DNA sequence: CCGGAGATTG
C-alpha cells in the first residue's frame, strides 16, 4: 500500500510539470483534467489505475505509464474484473506511441495467454517502427501457437502488419506465403488487406501484379488509389503515377504529397513545385514534402525559404520531420544561426530528441564547425544508431581529429553497433586527412574482410587519395590496377592529384590518358595537362589545351560558397557580381590583394592545381566563390568576428594560401569548410597544416 | 480493446 502511495506522489509532481504545456495541445473543453487527473486533488489520488489506463493512456507520459503499471503489479485487480489482455493492449500501444518498443515487447512477453488482440498490438508496434524481422518472428510464433488448443489464431487485422513487414523487407517468398494464407483463410475481400497486398507487390518491384490485384478489387477507396500512385513512383514510373493521379476521383492530401515526392525523387523539382502550388490545401506533411524535395535536390536555400514561408504564409508550426530536413539544409550551407534557432525551438517545445532529430542536429553542429556541440547532442540522445555514430566519426574526421574519430569507431563497436559503408568513409577520410596511410589500409581491409562490406567507388577513391597524398604513388597505381571494379574518373583523379603534388610528370601523363579514355571531356585533365605543359615550357601546347577545353564546352560543377550573416544565408558563385553589395565586396577583394602582395603573395607562382576535376583557376583566381564570401563576411560583420564559410568543392591551393594571409592581415579567424574537411585559418596558419 | 497510403538523418 505504501508503495502505491509513494508512486502516486511522484506521479503528481511529474504531471503538474507537464500540465503547463497542455493548453496549447488540447482544446480547453477537451482537457482531460477531471476524468484523467492522476492527482489534481487529494481525493483523486487513489483513483483506480485500471480506469485510468483504459481512458487516459494517450495522455500519459512514459514515466506515468510505468508508474501505473507498477501500481497494477503491486495491487493487481481481480482477474474476473478485467482481462489482462485488455490492459496489455493499452500498455503496448501507449508505450510504442512514446517510442518505447522495447517496453511494449516486454509487456507482451509477460502475458500468460495473449489473445489475438494482444498479438495484433505487438505486431503493429513492430511493423510501425520498421522492425520487420521482429514482426515476422512474432507472426511465426503466432502461427505455431494457433495450431495448439486454446491458442490465438490470426485474424484479418493480423495481416496488415505482416504484409507491411514483408513489403518492407522485400521478402518476396514470405510475402507470397502470407498472400496464400490470406486466400486460405478467406480474407481476400478485406479492403485493408487488398490495399496492403497492392502496396507489397509494388515494393517487390512487380507493378503488374499490384495493378492486377488493384483491377480485381470490387471496391476501392482513396487509399487504394494513393497506393497505386505511390507504387508507380516507387518503381520509377512517375508518368504512370501521374496518369493514375489525374484519373482518380477524389484526391486526398496524401495523393498530392505522394505525387510531389515522386517528382522530387526523380529530380524534377519544378514539376514538384507546380503540384505543390496547385494543391487545394496543405498540412504540415505537404510542406514537409516540398521542403525535403528541395533539400534532396541540393536546393538548400529554397528549402530554408520554404520553411520560413510555411510559418509566415502557411501559419503552421514545423514538426520534427520538418526540422530534420531543414537541419540537413543548414548543415550543407553552414547556416549555424538558423541551426541554433532550431535547437532552441526543440528545447522550447520540449520535443523529444528522437534518432532522426538527434542525428540531424548533431550533424548540423558538426558541419557548422561546432564539434563540441555535436558531441553534446550525441551524448544527450537516448539511443544512438549507426547514423549517430557515423555523424560523430565523420564530424571528427572533418575537423582533422583522426585519433578521436578512431576512438569513436572502437567505442561504437563496443556498443555493439555495426559500422556500414558510410561509417568507413568517415574512418578512411580521417586517415587521409592525417596521413595515416598504414592504418587507413588496415581499415580498408577490415571493412572488406571482417565486415564484408563491398567497397564503393568512393572508398577506392579515398584509399587512392590516401596513398597519393602521402606520395606513395607506386602503391596507389598498383592499388587501382588491382581493383575488382573498373576504376572511374574519380579514382584516377586521386592519383592525378598525387602526381601534381609530387610533380611526377611521366605518371601524370599516363593517368591523364586513362582519364580521357573514360571521359573525353574531363576538365581537370585539361587543366592538369595545360599546367604540365606550362611547367615544362610548352606554352603553345598549354594554350591549345585550354582552347580544346572551351570547344568541348566542358561543364563543371560551379564553385559555390555560402556565408550566413544576420540569419540570412548569402550564396556566391565564382566571379559572381549579382550580390547587392557587389561593389563593396570587390573593393574589399582589391584591398586584400594589395595587402597580400605587400606580404609577398603572388597567385601566379603556383601552376599546380590541387583539385583535379574541380574549379578552373585561370583568371578567376581572385574571385573564387570562397573569397567573395569571405570578403562579404569582412564588410558585414564587426571587427574580430569569426568568419564561417562553406564551399561546395575543395578549396584550391591558391585560395588556401590566400586565406592564411587574410586571417593574418585582418586579424580574424576564418573557418572554411570545403567538400572534404574544415580549414581553420588563424594568424596565417591553417589547422590542416597544409595537408588535406 | 486492433489494421492500409504521403514527409525525416550520415
UniProtKB/TrEMBL annotation:
Stated name of the protein: DYW domain-containing protein
InterPro entries registered for this protein in UniProt: DYW_dom (IPR032867), E2_motif (IPR046849), E_motif (IPR046848), PPR_At4g14850-like_plant (IPR046960), PPR_rpt (IPR002885), TPR-like_helical_dom_sf (IPR011990)
Annotated PPR repeat ranges: 221-255, 283-317, 385-419
An individual GO BP term: RNA modification
NCBIfam families recorded: PPR (TIGR00756)
Keyword match Repeat: yes
Family affiliation: Belongs to the PPR family. PCMP-H subfamily.
Molecular functions (GO terms): RNA binding; zinc ion binding
Span of domain DYW: 600-692
Keywords attached to this entry: Repeat
Lineage top rank: taxon: Eukaryota
Organism: Colocasia esculenta (Wild taro)
Amino acid at each position: 500500500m505504501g508503495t502505491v502511495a509513494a508512486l502516486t506522489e511522484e506521479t503528481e509532481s511529474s504531471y503538474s510539470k507537464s500540465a503547463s504545456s497542455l493548453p496549447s495541445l488540447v482544446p480547453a473543453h477537451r482537457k482531460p483534467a477531471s476524468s484523467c487527473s492522476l492527482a489534481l486533488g487529494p481525493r483523486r489520488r487513489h483513483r483506480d489505475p485500471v480506469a485510468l489506463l483504459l481512458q487516459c493512456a494517450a495522455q500519459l507520459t512514459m514515466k506515468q505509464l510505468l508508474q501505473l503499471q507498477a501500481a497494477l503489479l503491486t495491487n493487481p485487480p481481480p482477474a474476473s474484473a478485467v482481462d489482462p489482455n485488455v490492459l496489455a493492449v493499452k500498455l503496448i500501444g501507449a508505450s510504442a506511441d512514446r517510442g518505447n518498443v522495447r517496453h511494449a515487447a516486454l509487456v507482451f512477453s509477460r502475458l500468460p495467454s495473449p489473445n489475438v488482440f494482444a498479438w495484433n498490438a505487438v505486431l503493429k508496434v513492430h511493423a510501425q517502427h520498421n522492425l520487420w524481422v521482429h514482426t515476422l518472428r512474432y507472426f511465426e510464433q503466432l502461427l505455431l501457437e494457433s495450431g495448439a488448443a486454446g491458442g490465438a489464431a490470426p485474424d484479418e487485422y493480423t495481416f496488415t502488419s505482416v504484409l507491411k513487414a514483408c513489403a518492407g523487407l522485400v521478402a518476396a517468398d514470405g510475402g507470397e506465403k502470407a498472400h496464400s494464407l490470406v486466400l486460405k483463410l478467406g480474407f481476400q475481400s478485406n479492403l485493408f488487406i487488398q490495399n496492403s497486398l497492392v502496396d507489397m507487390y509494388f515494393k517487390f518491384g512487380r507493378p503488374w501484379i499490384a495493378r492486377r490485384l488493384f483491377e480485381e478489387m470490387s471496391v476501392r477507396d482513396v487509399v487504394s488509389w494513393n497506393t497505386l500512385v505511390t507504387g508507380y513512383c516507387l518503381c520509377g514510373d512517375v508518368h504512370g503515377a501521374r496518369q493514375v493521379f489525374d484519373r482518380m476521383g477524389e484526391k486526398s492530401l496524401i495523393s498530392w504529397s505522394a505525387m510531389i515526392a515522386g517528382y522530387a525523387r526523380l529530380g524534377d523539382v519544378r514539376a514538384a513545385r507546380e503540384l505543390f502550388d496547385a494543391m487545394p490545401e496543405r498540412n504540415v506533411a505537404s510542406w514537409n514534402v516540398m521542403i525535403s524535395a528541395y533539400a534532396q535536390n541540393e536546393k538548400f536555400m529554397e528549402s530554408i525559404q520554404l520553411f520560413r514561408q510555411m510559418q509566415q504564409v502557411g501559419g503552421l508550426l514545423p514538426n520534427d520531420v520538418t526540422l530534420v530536413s531543414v537541419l540537413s539544409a543548414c548543415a550543407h550551407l553552414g547556416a549555424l544561426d538558423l541551426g541554433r534557432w532550431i535547437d532552441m525551438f526543440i528545447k522550447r517545445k520540449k520535443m523529444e530528441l528522437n534518432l532522426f532529430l538527434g542525428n540531424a542536429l548533431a550533424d548540423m553542429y558538426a558541419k557548422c564547425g561546432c564539434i563540441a556541440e555535436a558531441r553534446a547532442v550525441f551524448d544527450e540522445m537516448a539511443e544512438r544508431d549507426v547514423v549517430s555514430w557515423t555523424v560523430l566519426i565523420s564530424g571528427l574526421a572533418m575537423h582533422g581529429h583522426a585519433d578521436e574519430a578512431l576512438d569513436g569507431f572502437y567505442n561504437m563497436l563496443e556498443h555493439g553497433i555495426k559500422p556500414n559503408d558510410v561509417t568507413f568513409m568517415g574512418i578512411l577520410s580521417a586517415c587521409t586527412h592525417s596521413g595515416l596511410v598504414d592504418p587507413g589500409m588496415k581499415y580498408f581491409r577490415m571493412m572488406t574482410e571482417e565486415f564484408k562490406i563491398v567497397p564503393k567507388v568512393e572508398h577506392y577513391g579515398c584509399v587512392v587519395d590516401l596513398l597519393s597524398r602521402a606520395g606513395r604513388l607506386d602503391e596507389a597505381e598498383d592499388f587501382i590496377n588491382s581493383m575488382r571494379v573498373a576504376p572511374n574518373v574519380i579514382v584516377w583523379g586521386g592519383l592525378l592529384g598525387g602526381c601534381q603534388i609530387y610533380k611526377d610528370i611521366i605518371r601524370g601523363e599516363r593517368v591523364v590518358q586513362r582519364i580521357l579514355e573514360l571521359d573525353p571531356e574531363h576538365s581537370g585533365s585539361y587543366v592538369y595537362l595545360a599546367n604540365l605543359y606550362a611547367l615544362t615550357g610548352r606554352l603553345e601546347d598549354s594554350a591549345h589545351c585550354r582552347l580544346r577545353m572551351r570547344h568541348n564546352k566542358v561543364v563543371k560543377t560551379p564553385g559555390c560558397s555560402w556565408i550566413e550573416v544576420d540569419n540570412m544565408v548569402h550564396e556566391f558563385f565564382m566571379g559572381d557580381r549579382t550580390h547587392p553589395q557587389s561593389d563593396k565586396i570587390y573593393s574589399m577583394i582589391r584591398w586584400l590583394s594589395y595587402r597580400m602582395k605587400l606580404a609577398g603573395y603572388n597567385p601566379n607562382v603556383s601552376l599546380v592545381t590541387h583539385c583535379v576535376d574541380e574549379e578552373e583557376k585561370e583568371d578567376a583566381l581572385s574571385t573564387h566563390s570562397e573569397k567573395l564570401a569571405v570578403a562579404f563576411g569582412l564588410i558585414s560583420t564587426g571587427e574580430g568576428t569569426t568568419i564561417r564559410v562553406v564551399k561546395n568543392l575543395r578549396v584550391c591551393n591558391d585560395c588556401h594560401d590566400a586565406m592564411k594571409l587574410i586571417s593574418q592581415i585582418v586579424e580574424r579567424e576564418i573557418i572554411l569548410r570545403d567538400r572534404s574537411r574544415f580549414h581553420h585559418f588563424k594568424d596565417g596558419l591553417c589547422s590542416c597544416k597544409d595537408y588535406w
